[in-house]
Amino acid sequence: MRTDPIADFITKIRNAVRARHHRVEDTYSRMREAIARIMMDEGFLEWVEVQGQGARKKIVAGIRYTPTHEPVLRGIKRISKPSVRVYVGAKEIPKVQSGLGISILSTPLGVITDREARKRNVGGELLVSVW
């Protein structure tokens, strides 16, 4: 049994980057897909696909590298955990790496980046920091 599937997904991405793999896959959930799609939109992942049907669905993502084969993703960290949830208001959202990175939040408007949350003036659960 997995107690924190989001942390497992984040760890798989981190390990794939360190091992210089070109893709990572995990079982599917809407939350993992939302996190992966935001990372793709922000340029940390190359592509994201959902494969399979029903209980055999999985999410597959391509790791993005620079032309010199350095990973674009420098770091990724799970902030809110099942044991300690971290909620922030719109004015309390921290900047990651002085604005060079992103935070991913779960808000009433859905899973969005810190910039979008500040723009829409909404807070929520701080899920992941990526830089």
> What is the CATH-assigned architecture of the largest domain?
2-Layer Sandwich
The CATH topology assignment of the largest domain is Ribosomal Protein S8, Chain: A, domain 1
Topology order in helix (H) and strand (E) letters: HEHEEEEEEHE
Helix content: 25-40%
Average pLDDT over all residues: 96
Strand content: 25-35%
Q: What is the CATH class designation of the largest domain?
A: Alpha Beta
Query: How many individual β-strands?
Result: 8
| Low-pLDDT residue intervals, each spanning 5 or more residues | none
Number of helices: 3
Number of domains: 2
Structural shape: globular
End-to-end span in angstroms?
A: 29 Å
Helix-and-strand structural type: alpha+beta
Q: Largest sheet at a glance?
A: 5 strands, antiparallel
Taking Cα atoms only, what radius of gyration do you get, to the nearest Å? 15 Å
Write the SSE topology.
Blueprint: H1 5-18, E1 23-27, H2 30-41, E2 45-51, E3 58-63, E4 76-78, E5 87-88, E6 102-107, E7 110-113, H3 114-120, E8 124-130
Give a quick rundown of the structure.
The protein has 131 residues and is α+β, with helices and mostly antiparallel strands.
Give a verbal description of the structure:
The protein is an alpha+beta fold and 131 residues long. It has helices at residues 5-18, 30-41, 114-120; strands at 23-27, 45-51, 58-63, 76-78, 87-88, 102-107, 110-113, 124-130. The strands form 2 sheets. Strands 4, 5, 6, 7 and 8 form a 5-stranded antiparallel sheet that branches. Strands 1-3-2 form a 3-stranded antiparallel sheet, with helices on one face. Strand 2 and strand 3 (58-63) form a beta hairpin. The longest helix is centred in the first third of the chain and has 14 residues, at 5-18. It is globular and about 35 Å long.
